[in-house]
Design goal:
By secondary structure, this protein is α/β, with parallel strands linked by helices. About 25% of the residues lie in helices and about 25% in strands.
């Protein structure tokens, strides 16, 4: 009998993967769906000057906001920072370099990175210097487009409801958000999950993220964003 390839590990065993200056992509929307245990592990690792990519900057004490507020991020590509006033303060003080990308375009840039497309074309913000920000342009059929580069990361961290030993993932309602896209775009992808179930327990039609994208699985010790959801 062939044994399944078990990707389950512990938080301590993946801590060494987080290093200075690396690019980390994270799932989540306002902290919901951002893996809290992995965020804490990044903080414990001592890694700093991190380049972050994700939908938003969470709250000061929830989601990626904990890393931002600890001064461990050097830059971030995101769609908004409104829920985390510390991010705005750091940006104003020149301590955090922020590239704003419209939410849908950000998601598509991440998806493009996950499937190996180098860039996408967008007509959003072509006349807006805040969005265009010296990005190259191209004209197709008399319409001008911005060339938006695809996004990838050294490590992607995601949160899922269930995984099997192969790393196949399913998500819980709105906590799914950007996680499936982020899972595809990391050189290494680590999934924090509520539960690991036996091979065959997940119905194929339920699986959102195939295990081929997932390198490590850790079991969550609980989330800190339930109140945001409720």
């Amino acid at each position: 009998m062939v044994k399944p390839f078990n990707k389950k590990t512990s938080f301590d065993k993946i801590k060494h993967l987080f290093t200075n200056e690396m690019t980390i992509m994270y799932g989540g929307f306002g902290g919901i769906g951002t893996p809290p245990g992995l965020i804490d592990e990044i903080l414990d690792s001592g890694a700093e000057n991190l380049h972050l990519i994700g939908n938003d900057t969470g709250f000061p004490d929830i989601g990626i906001g904990k890393i931002v507020c600890a001064g461990r991020a050097k830059s971030i590509i995101t769609s908004h920072i409104g829920s985390n006033p510390v991010a705005g303060q750091l940006m104003t003080e020149g301590k955090l370099d922020i590239e704003f990308s419209p939410q849908g375009i950000l998601a598509e840039r991440i998806r493009a990175g996950g499937v190996g497309i180098p860039a996408i074309l967008s007509d959003i913000g072509t006349e807006n210097s805040f969005i265009a920000n010296h990005k190259p342009k191209v004209k197709l059929e008399n319409t001008e487009y911005l060339i938006e580069t695809a996004l990838t990361a050294d490590i992607s961290i995601v949160y899922a409801k269930q995984a099997d030993p192969y790393g196949n993932l399913i998500y819980d309602k709105s906590a799914r958000n950007t996680n499936p896209l982020v899972a595809m775009a990391g050189e290494i992808t680590i999934a924090e999950v509520e539960e690991i179930v036996p091979v065959g327990k997940l119905h194929p039609d339920q699986i959102v993220t195939p295990g081929v994208f997932v390198d490590y699985i850790v079991v969550s010790e609980g989330v800190n964003w339930k109140w945001v959801w409720e």
